[in-house]
Amino acid sequence: MAKLVYDEKGRLLFTKEMKEEYTILIPMMAPIHFGIIKTVFDNSGYNVVLLQNNGHSVVEEGLKYVHNDTCYPALLVIGQMMDALHSGKYDLHKTALLISQTGGGCRASNYIHLLRKALKKAGLDYIPVVSINLSGMEKNPGFKLTLPMIRKMIAGLVYGDLLMLLSNQTRPYEIHKGETDALVAHWVEKLAGQFKIGKGYGRAEQKKYLDSIAQAFAAIPVDRSKPKVRVGVVGEIYVKYASLGNNNLEAFLAEQDCEVMVPGLMGFMLFKVDNRLEDIKLYGGNAVKYAAVKTFMDYLTSMETTLIEAVKKVPGFVVPSPYSHVKKLVKGVIGYGCKMGEGWLLTGEMMELAEQGYGNIVCTQPFGCLPNHIVGKGMIRRITSIFPDANIVPIDYDPSATRVNQENRIKLMLSVAKERLAEKSGEPQPAGV
Amino acid sequence: MVDGMRIGLDIGSTTIKCVAMDEEGKLLYQSYERHFSQITQKTAQLLSQVRERFPQEQTAKLTISGSAGMGMADSCGIPFVQEVYATRVAAKKLIPDGDVIIELGGEDAKILFLSGSMEVRMNGSCAGGTGAFIDQMATLLGVSADEMNTLAQEHEKIYTIASRCGVFAKSDIQPLLNQGAKKSDVAASIFYAVVNQTIAGLAQGREITGKVIYLGGPLTFLPQLRVSFDKTLHTTGVCPENSLYYVAMGAAFCASEEIDLAAALERLQQYHTQGRYATMPPLFHNQQEYEEFCARHNRDVAVTADPETYEGPAYIGIDAGSTTLKAAVIDPQGRLLTSVYQSNNGNPVPLVRQFLLDFYHRYPKITLKGGTVTGYGEDIIRNAFGVDYGVVETVAHFTAAKKFLPQVDFIIDIGGQDIKCFKIRSGAIDNIFLNEACSSGCGSFLQTFANALGYSIADFAKLGLFADHPVDLGSRCTVFMNSSVKQAQKDGASIENISAGLSISVVKNALYKVIRCANAQQLGEHIVVQGGTFLNDAVLRAFEQELGVDVVRPDIAGLMGAYGAALYALEKGADSTTMLGLEDLEHFTHEVRAVACGGCSNNCQLTVNTFSGGRRFISGNRCERPVTKKAQDDSENIYQYKLELLRSYQPIKGSRGKLGLPMGLNMYELLPFWYAFFTRLGFEVVHSPASNRELYLSGQSSIPSDTVCFPAKLMHGHVEALIHEGVHTIFYPCMSYNLDEGLGDNHYNCPVVAYYPEVIAANMPDIGKVNFITDYVGIHRRKDFPKKIHEILCRYFGDIPLRDVKAAADEAYESYDAYFVRVRAREKEIVDRARKEGRPIIVLAGRPYHVDPEINHGIDKLIAGFNVAVISEDSVSCNVQKFPTGVLNQWTYHSRLYAAARYIATQPDMNLVQLVSFGCGVDAITTDEVREILEAEGKIYTQIKIDEITNLGAVKIRLRSLFAATGLE
């Protein structure tokens, strides 16, 4: 069995032996994306499990082990892990946990520490926690993000974004129910297979696959004759994507007969990298570092371009705006230095959605989310002064916020949306929602 | 026959409204009833009544609205319309010239802007209820809502009551009542609190003008509430005919689908909710389990003696709690002679008098030798009756608990208004947990809920004993519990299961929210539970179940404070008492007067109680000045020194004109920096005035997020004040980074401090009138700063030579350093003097902006008033080198907290009290870490949560408990 080794600060390390013997648990967030990215680890010699456990016990474990005033995503992510550890499914002496760390000025950078506190509280502090980040924090001998891994993950994000984007625009109109989801599942599996054998992420190959995916979705028979209410979802990254965090928001909106648009993860990646450039521009800094980051930024931008190009080639889909356009939109609305959490990008996404015809927006945030006071709720007034038709409802999520309250507020937003849709298409007043 | 009958049902959180109308919209039928959470039955019943009334109608256009009707409508195939939307539809039809609708319901508050760009707003999930809130407050006052309205008519003054959340308001009102404030004044103040909450929480910067319409139960039934709105809005709103039925009428107007009524009725009657709500295991599986449980607890009884036959000395303990009055009389062996436990109806004074009178009359052979009073009403009762001793509640409870379980190491007391828990280590109180204002109200919450459903609290709690599937209601504040209950009702949970769920919630709240424990071993082995709430077997059982241990519940669980106080008097062993005798009691008088103190700029609202014999008791004061007529000595209080220091940065006339700095958040510390910088560049640097209530209110309407911390909210008032003063240029930069003090892994500001200028710029209507500079500035890069700020300044002020900017930057950094040198020098003086005189030292740790008296509510002075030296975290943090912490140490201000904690752990005469602003997300992380650092060195951690308004009574308990634990009281 692997020996427990600590670094000079007393942090338990993930060793090379552990890489051989241990199972690494990863918390769930965006299912399509994470499903693809998981295979990158499989392919690189790690034994990983993407956690699927949800429901009440996750929240319970979170409440028990995490300070209750901490943001809800921390509670859920850690709760999901603790719940898994206590499930009896894993040999606890051969299990490690993996969690992402952004290093920004928001509380989220502390998740990993809160997770360690939770483990200690539960008497499980022999379980190593691996940080995954691009800032060089917390190195481990048994875990290294290699360049090929990073490239594959970015490719995974691009695929994930495309699948999410196209399926969201197809599913509500599909003639044969279930066809869209089946196609998503097909591609996730196919791409996973490619990744496993080290394929599918080269520039040319990826371009080819992106085009095929777009064509495949365009080929699904749809009926778009009756316009549906178009709803955009933005927010803190976890509650925005994770159904565990947002009480199955997307499913609820689908039930209400809406088409949902959720901006992709690539924008967030670009934003986080761009922040480093903006920091140097605003406050000064090293030109060499700037050039290095710029190179990475350009690489990500080129990936984004291939995605957009793929969508443009097929008819019938709303083409996502490039990051650079979103950035232009917020100029004069909020500063580029506003970078903690989702920063100005969240404001930008709301504006972009409004511009693209998804002006009915659910702005999701954990209760008391600090950056959201600024970039979410704080900017709604300004956004509606620029896009008077924007119909934005901020919704708080936390362990005890009830669905009935959340859904009631969303329904209010939808009532207004439906009325406007009816006015536009010249129908009489609707009968409510 | 009715042509095209329409039926609208509005199923709210507490009531169901039903209307039927003809095609023209003429009302044919209406009804308004409480549903006592029997939603489906009541709905079916109402619909059958309509059927009986109009037997010819086989079908009608039927629509349901209201939050509690959502799920049911879906399942029964009846169309549903969102209630705010329905209101708007009705208003458009019935009052086409209306501009704004204010609608208060059982638990919701809504504002609809009809004219201009249409907007609808509902209260956020934290804002609490309104109708339910008023009911709760009425219960607190011991009157009905209607009586409260009558009382409010006669008010003379208005107290400030927290308006953000019902629980907060409650903790403001309770002390007011206990201190003798007039009910009429309190009643009117409550209405104004509702008004403020509605306007602040919902209008969000949009002005309420034009024709205002009042709808919903509270505004219909309570004319004084309308008057309060009218006065605040400077308007005369209208409350139209059928103001209760707008949602229901809107639903009827929206109805377009012909529904077969008989079929709909049948579906309703058959609608059995599937029990989809989250459940927990039952409290007791069977009668036998319950009996065993009772037998075990029946062993823990207090020894009594018969007062009818007893002759000799005795000691009395009085616990003037938040909602109840308890008193106990014991003999020298500690045997209980007589006791009382009753609701205080908002004024404990006459109750104590009556108890004493009865006691003297009935037991003339018993002689009182001494008395002790404890609880919220300690000061007033002590003054009124000349009680010998006062003791902090925690000590009283500990004294009593020891009598039942000498080796007790953990005590939890759940009272009407609060939860108190403390650990005992080596015979002394070691660690205290009090509930924060947000999660309080546990016992009285159960009570209010029981009353709302038509039960007494005891009967209500009993219902849950054998519930098969208790509802899981979460462990948050009572407002959340309200909506959880609503959800459970919607999902068809029975009253039994809701009752059990509430009992379990109370326990979970205490364990996970207040104590923050993960397992029972952490608490202790010998646990005593007390407080009236534990007299309910359901709560006790839930507690034992949750922890998996057996605990001791004395049969006098509700009396423990009073019993402990009596024991305390006994321990003091006095020969005679100073308490009023029979004759004095018979001629006892009590007058209450409200006055505004003119002692200083705080203008505290004082309540002056005058008792017979000229004894006086003043409350509402934040310092001792109105009592002693002398100014407090502030020389050993670094908070006061900092204020004084900041006042010394006076504007100097300059060629470039005025530049305004809003005094809030990080500006509190950066004033020396920016003052020197801009003064050198030739600006006349002015800053906004000292914060006060009016300043806050002047900015509150533009606050977009009601859950952001109070210091940030206050910023709106400061910027408003500068604009109002005619300052044309306001400098309030965004700053992701603070200066690096070398104590942490990074040196960020928190997101709110960093970016609040963006919020001001985007939400304050008048901001366009001034030159508002919010550029991103990095003072952490000393070398780059001059060049970068030079670019910014040139954009606003034309060409300023870079040379000048560089020189100004040099002065700015020097000025900032000089400020800290002075603060630290004063800190040293204070510590040296305190040590020489042998007085304890408190590090009052928080953020730079906690120096603002409007934010700290005079807590620094309160502590200093205990004859304690007060220093701050930033004055000692420099004494420590960077060290590893259990959390990511990345915020400059917060690094100081860890460093301060680390430092005082090595100083025997220092203790740390942490000020935490409500809603501060970052402090959810820092508080645990600071606690860990302190406890690792055997120090006690004390936290004080502060918000817009703070209950200083609870703060006092904390401080006195800390002093008692450290042997200073």
Largest interface: A-B, 78 and 90 residues
Q: Report on the biggest sheet of chain A.
A: 4 strands, parallel
How many DSSP E strands of chain A?
8
**Helix share, percent of chain A:** 40-55%
Q: Average pLDDT value of chain B? A: 86
CATH topology of the domain at 228-264 and 320-433 in chain A: Rossmann fold
* Beta-strand content of chain B: 15-25%
Helix/strand structural class of chain B: alpha/beta
Shape of chain B: globular
Total individual domains of chain B: 7
**Assembly status:** heterodimer
Span of the ends, CA to CA of chain B: 81 Å
Overall pLDDT of chain A, averaged?
A: 91
Radius of gyration of chain A: 22 Å
Please tell me about this protein's structure.
The complex is a heterodimer of chains A (433) and B (969). Chain A is of the alpha/beta class and 433 residues long. Helix content of chain A is 52%, strand content 10%. Chain A contains 17 helices and 8 strands. Chain A is globular. The termini of chain A are far apart. Residues 429-433 of chain A have low confidence and may be disordered. In chain B, 43% of the residues lie in helices and 17% in strands. Chain B folds into 7 domains: 6-95 and 248-270, Nucleotidyltransferase, domain 5, CATH 3.30.420.40; 100-239, 2-Layer Sandwich (Nucleotidyltransferase, domain 5); 312-405 and 563-586, Nucleotidyltransferase, domain 5 (2-Layer Sandwich); 419-551, 2-Layer Sandwich (Nucleotidyltransferase, domain 5), CATH 3.30.420.40; 589-624, no CATH class; 638-820, no CATH class; 829-965, 3-Layer(aba) Sandwich (Rossmann fold), CATH 3.40.50. Chain B starts with 5 loop residues before the first strand and ends with a helix. In chain B, helix 4 packs parallel to helix 6, helix 4 (131-141) packs antiparallel against helix 7 and helix 7 (183-203) crosses helix 9. The longest helix of chain B is centred in the C-terminal third of the chain and has 35 residues, at 802-836. Chain B has 969 residues and is of the alpha/beta class. Chains A and B meet through helix 3, helix 5, helix 11, helix 15 and helix 16 of A and strand 5, helix 3, helix 18, helix 28 and helix 35 of B.
